Amino acid sequence: MTKKILISILFAGMAVIIYSCRSGENEENKEKSIINQAFLKNVKTEKPILSNLEQELILSGKVEFDPGKVVYYNPLISGIIERTYFSLGDKVQKGQTMLDIRSAELSALQSELIIARRNLQSVESMNEDKLISERELIEARSTFEKLQADLSLYGENKGGGVFAIKSPMTGYVVAKNASSGSTVSDGDAPLFTIADLSNVWIIANVYAGDLQSVKQGMSVEITTLAYPDEVFTGKVDALSQVFDPEEKVMKARIVMPNAALKFKPEMSVVVKVKAPPPPKGGRKDGTVFENGTAATSPPLGGLGGAYLSIPSDALIFDDNKYFVVVETAPEKFEIKEIQLQGHYQKSSYIRSGLNENDMVVVKNQLLVYSELKGK
Fold first, then answer.
1. H or E element: which one contains 138?
2. Residue 326: band (very low, low, confident or very high) from pLDDT cuts 50, 70, 90
3. Could you read off the pLDDT of 67-114 as tens digits, one per residue?
């Protein structure tokens, strides 16, 4: 084989290889084009909607019992607790025995009562025989009744210097500071606290920056860790006008029915305040929205206002900023940075960065964003 023939064969082989490569590139480009077309068919866009901002303000809070439906039992005399008949959290009935106290002071009063009773019986007998005056009978009866009333303040007289302390109301024991064998004195802390829990107070903390957003009568939603799938609804019953000096907050009160006893005193809760929509046609500051123009600043007087809204799923969070992808022409896209005013449920409200006629990509926006960022 001559040198000329070998060179011809080599050139022919190279031509085949080049043709094959170019053919492969064309097939790859063709496939890429098909994939892009198929991908673009799944891209979905929507126009922003001008709507009133519904925004939630999240407040921390806790459950408290109604202070008007609670009784604290403070010891009225010195003594020793012989026995207790209750535990923390128990439901008790009015008149139920809570504890027994032995007291030397009560023992002395018991002795005086016994003497007064015997004296009254003697005076009554003598009065029947006309041996003493009616006045002496009245005095003896008054002395006995006074001692009896005094002793009744301490509880039921069980004799031997022991008194049974009764529950003054029906409710639940929400605090206990009594145990068998412990000593008590007049002026000590309450031995027990009983509260009616059929209604409770939810006390929410309102910081200074949120004051204009929380008003009496506003609707709230309450959630707890104990019942994560359950939402309780109520209204702001009252708003304190004085800041708590320690927590530096104002207290909002929500009165909640508690027939099922799901709310426990001291339970932590999350309170979501939803503002009512602003007057139709504009914000509370008098700004009127014409031709669908969105607000460019937060509404005055708290939550609420008219803003462009988009589905929250359309948002892209990248580099500590929010972006959306906008279709500027068929199959042409652009990334826009936006400023958020707030979220509510599945909608996000835009403060700036978006126009009312923008076609926002709400499906497959992440893939388009990634492709645009990669160019």
1. helix 134-152
2. very high
3. 999 999 988 888 899 999 999 999 999 999 999 999 887 777 777 888
Identity at 7, one-letter amino acid code: I
Edge-first strand listing for the sheet containing 156-159: 156-159, 162-166, 97-102, 79-84, 183-184
Distance of CA 18 to the CA centre of its chain: 71
In a domain, 26, yes or no: no
Residue 47 burial (10 A CB sphere; 0-12, 13-18, 19+): middle
Q: What DSSP string describes 238-279?
A: EE-SS--TTT--EEEEEEEE-TT----TT-EEEEEEEPPPPP
Question: Is this structure's pTM higher than 0.70?
Answer: no
Same domain, 90 and 126: no
Domain extent, residue 175, equals 72-101+165-195
β-bridge pairing 79-84 and 162-166: unpaired
- How open is the CA angle 40-44-50, to the nearest 5 degrees? 150
Give CA–CA dist 49/57, Å, rounded: 22
